[in-house]
Each structure stands twice: as C-alpha cells, then as structure tokens.
Amino acid sequence: MPRDTLTGSRIRERRAIKGLRQADLARQVGISPSYLNLIEHNRRRIGGKLLVDLAEVLGVEPSMLTEGAEAALIATLREAADEAGLATAETDRAEEFAGRFPGWAEVLSWSHRRIASLERTVETLSDRLTHDPRLAASLHEVLSTAAAIRSTASILAETGELEPEWRDRFHKNLNEDSARLADSSKALVNYLDDSATGEDHRGAPQEEVEAFMAANGHHFPALEAGTADPDAIVAAAPELTGRAARQVARAVLGQYLADAAAMPLEPFAGAVKVQGLDPLALAAAFDVDLPAVFRRIAALPEAALPGEVGLVICDASGSILFRKAITGFALPRFGEACPLWPLFTALSRPLVPIRRRVSQLGRAVAEFDCLAVAWPDGPPGFDRDPLYRSIMLILPLRHGEGTAAAAQPVGGTCRVCPRSGCDARREPSILSEGF
Amino acid sequence: MGRHVLLIEDEANITEAIRFLLTREGWTVDTHADGRDAIEVIRAAKPDLVILDVMLPGKSGMDILRELRDSDGLRDLPVLMLTARGQSRDREMAEKAGVNRFMTKPFSNAEVVTAVRDLYAQASRT
C-alpha cells in the first residue's frame, strides 16, 4: 500500500498508543466519530487544518502521520525481511506494517540492528581466535584441565570405597591439575585484561621488546639525530620491565644505530621515494647487505613508506627473534610459525635472496610479497660452524600486483591454521575447517 | 575375552580417570597418546570401541576417524569422540566423518560411562 494512503492507519495507531477513544479524539478536533472512523480506515484522505489538529492532539508532528515511519526504519525492516527469507508479498508490506504498528516496527528494527552488531562482535572474536594462537591455546588448556579435574574429583567424591593406591594417585592428579588450571586461568585473565587495555601480555623478553618497538612505531628520531643513545632510550622505556628485555632491546637499538649510520634517514628515505622498495638497488646504493636494508626499511617512519611493512627475523632453530606486525599476516606470538614461510625456506639456501608471493588464510585471504634472505651471523671462524639467521620483509600486495604465478598459501601457526592436507602440518588445528 | 576399549588421549590425567572408570565397569582399557600411529595401534589392539580425542599430537582425531572409516575391518568400529571444542559445526563435521558419539570437555564421568555402554550395546546388536 502506498505510503500516503496510510495516514489513517497511523492516526489510529497513535490514538491507541495515547489511549484515546475514537469519539474523544473526534470531539477534540471537531469532527464526528463516524468521519474519524472513515479516516482511520484510510477511506478518507485528509490534510490541512484537520491533519494539524489531529497531530496536535496526538502529540506528534503532522509529517509523522502523513509520511509515517522514517525511510530508514522501512529500509531496516525490508533488510530484516530479506535476511529472514520472508516472502516478497510480505516484504512489500513493510511500510504498512511500520505505519500500523510503529512501536513493533521499532522493536523489530532495533532487534535486527542488534543482531547485526552481535554478528560483527562474533566475527571479531572469531577473527581474534583465528589469528591469536595464544588465546586459542589458553582456552584449550583451560578446558582440558577442567575436564581432568571434573573427572578426577567425581571419582573421589562418588566412589564409595576407593583403594588407597588409587585414592592417592587421584589426589596427586587433582593437585597437579588444579595448579595447572590456576596458572592457565590466571594467564588467560591477564592476557584478556591486557588486551582490553590495549596492551600486550608481557611474558618473554621478545614480547616486551616488541611492545616497546610498537609503542615507538619502530622508529627512533633521537637515535637518528644522535641526541640519545640506546642505553638512555631503554632506561626510559616503561614497556621494558625485565632485565632480559632491556638487554634484548639494547641489542636491537644497537643494530638500529649501526643501520642508521650506514643508511642515514634523509638519503635513504629519498632513495625509497625515487626507487621504491627495491632492496637490491638500495643495498647497492648504500653498499650494505640485504638484511640491513630490510631492517632499515622496517625502521622508516610511516610517512616515508608507500604502505605498511612487516618484518620477521628468526634464528636457525626457527625461533622468532623479532617481528614487526603487518595487517592481515598472522604472526604467532611464540615461535611455532608456519614452516612454509619464505623466511624458513631461505635458511636452506643461505645468502640466496628469495621472493615469494604468498597468501595467508584468515577470515579473508590476504596476499603479500615476501622477500627473505638468510645470512651467517657473527664473524667467520675456521673451527666453528656459522650461526645462521633469516630475515623476511613482508609487503602487502594490492589486487593485480605481483607475478602471474599463483600465490603460495601459507599459515600463521598450525594450531589455528584451517588448511587441510598440508604437508607441513605439525599438529592438528583446533579450527573445524582444518579437521 | 572381556569388553575392550582403546582410549586415545594425550592428557595423562584424563586418561587415568577414564581408565579407572571403565576398568571398574569391567572393561579392559588400553591407552595411547599419539595421533601419528593411532591407526596402526587400533588395528593391532582390535578394540570393541575407541575413545578418541580430537587434538592429538601428530594427527587430528578427525583425520584418524576419517581413515578409520576408509579402512577395511575398522569401518564399523564404534568411536566416541572427545573434544574441547563443542561448536555445532564441529559436531556436524564429526558426524559427517562418521563419529558414533561426540562429547565435549569437560564431560561428566557418568556421561562417558553411559555412552561407552550404549555404543557397545548398539554395536553388539548389529
């Protein structure tokens, strides 16, 4: 039914909301109840003074009676009907519904918006679980320990005569599991609390250093300008609470300082602007090796870069030593990264630069240009094996960029990677897609 | 020979509790904690029923279940699956893979014992 023919329905609804009888309203606006009845059943069109008078008595703007509910409400109702798969004939009557039952229409509209909001929350949490191996592992640990405690406690409580040997064993198990549950619950709560305040959980020294680097945007103007040294910056950093973390941070900043000396900010940023992120050209231009160029690119201020840049460094055991996160590329907090990353491929071919277009599965598939190289760390020696490290620069790929070859799919870490049939899988995924 | 269950679970204390419960019910309980060689272990043990954890080192319980259902002689082996993830889609996936019963952690002892008893009774009737 067209919107402007529903004025009577809206008048009737508003009158009912106000608790007025038809006769009372008719009397107050100076018309007969039978005429009002015709109006309310949309059999008489009204306008002008009568409309204004009715609106005044009903306590609404005249437009509310003629135009009915707002277009947004109608649109929301249609959207809700579409998503519910309601028949077209019913959907077409959204205006009539909103006109006749504005209160219910508001309720339905609010519920629909609320569902959409909750769906977004669920999606966000799922996304977090997908990309947050630590959260997933913590939850699994808590549930498994709770299962062991529940089962053991039930045996102790419900078994009438328990042999002393079994009883002692179960008491011991209960004691162990309750301690484990206390630890894992505390770790989970701390983690969630820290996440809620926007801070990362501080555990390993590398995590404190990562928080410190992130807080500074991975860029230190005072070091660039020579107005502060690593010791002073580390001493003033609130993120670095432990001695080990401060030591790691000093080493990172020492390397930063050396890189900045070899590739001063202004000329390096200028070269990036002219040549783009071409590490080989930059290495040649500044006479440095590729790892230094990768580190320096990741240390540039955002304004000097064409987009986000991620960086990961590992040692020969595969342990992640340093990471600069990039949107869409899941980096596990604690080692255990996907062995398909070019970072690890490079370890098998030291000093050979590797470039791979990779895609990482998450809520959405994101593609990246990954450049990696492994190099012997430390001075060479005849009587000792070299210690290799590997570094990977992660650049986002926009649609259509990169080579024609299909991107190599990689994961974050096995536990939360949904890829099935992966030769590199170390352990089952807790995500159903991986089963 | 008595009723024989193989419990494949890597949480040692869960294993101990279930073994105790079922042993008292008259079951012979063998245990195993690794997913990698689970199929071989099942084939060698020839149990009447398998209790299978989903998250196992080396191989997922879901993958083991799928292999079981594709294996001659093990296709009809009753499987009770235990998991810390109880979302409906996980349950659907397990059912699709051919699970006989799906149970989420933390479970009650009575549930486990009843499920084992029921599955055995059903299998004995067929």
Order of helices and strands of chain B: EHEHEHEHEH
Give the mean pLDDT of chain B.
90
What is the CATH class of chain B? Alpha Beta
How many helices of chain A? The count is 19
Count of separate DSSP helical elements of chain B:
5
Q: How does the major sheet of chain A shape up?
A: 6 strands, mixed
- Helical proportion of chain A? 40-55%
Q: Describe the main β-sheet of chain B briefly.
A: 5 strands, parallel
What does this entry look like structurally?
The complex is a heterodimer of chains A (435) and B (126). By secondary structure, chain A is α+β, with helices and mostly antiparallel strands. Chain A is built from 19 helices and six strands. Chain A folds into three domains: 3-119, 434 Repressor (Amino-terminal Domain) (Orthogonal Bundle), CATH 1.10.260; 132-196; 308-435, Beta-Lactamase, CATH 3.30.450. In chain A, a hairpin with a 5-residue loop joins strand 3 (354-360) and strand 4. In chain A, helix 6 packs across helix 9, helix 8 (94-100) packs across helix 9 and helix 10 (133-158) packs antiparallel against helix 11 (164-196). Chain A starts with 6 loop residues before the first helix and ends in a 25-residue tail after the last strand. Helix content of chain B is 45%, strand content 19%. Chain B has a five-stranded parallel β-sheet, with helices on both faces. The mean pLDDT of chain B is 90. Chain B has a single domain (4-125), classed as 3-Layer(aba) Sandwich (Rossmann fold). The chains are: A alpha+beta (435), B alpha/beta (126). The interface between A and B is medium-sized, with 28 and 35 residues.
